Amino acid sequence: MPRIKTPDKEQAILEAAARVFSGRPFHEALIDDVAARARVGKGTIYRYFQTKEDLFFAAILHSFDELSAALAVSLERETSPVKRLERIAREVLSFSWERRDLFALLLSDERRFPEREEELQKRREAISRLVQEAILEGIRRREFRGIDARVGAELFRGMIRAANSLRPREETLDELVSEIVGIFTHGIERDGR
What pLDDT does 1 receive? Predict the structure, then answer.
């Protein structure tokens, strides 16, 4: 009789995979290491994921979903557009620094998963929508000038992505967030502010 899959096991596998893939290049990451870290048998992993690539991609999506959940909590009561942008930048940078190698691996191997780009894009767009909402609220409050919020969100995302390359220099997370948001909002402030 086949064993029943459980969400707890799958969660443990995904978290272990994120850590293992974060620590080494894809070709050096072993399913055995994921199994040991998740405290399951190697066969259990293959009940959930057919290939190492499937596991890697699922770990990426799981990481994006964790980031989205953290952002939802962080932004729940924040109404200031600038503060919302600060929280988004802080959460994204903090999260990507914690899983630096995993996201570096994704960025370096983006072409490895062309058939799954649509799923990744959905996750990116969810985060981009949060930035767009903050920009639109700033425009509505007349704190920001009327810019294309979609373009602004992509530029903001690009600033965060570029800031990832600064780690681990002297800047603290708070200093870097302050610089990013300061430069960005100064560029979109209404005249005379």
Answer: 41
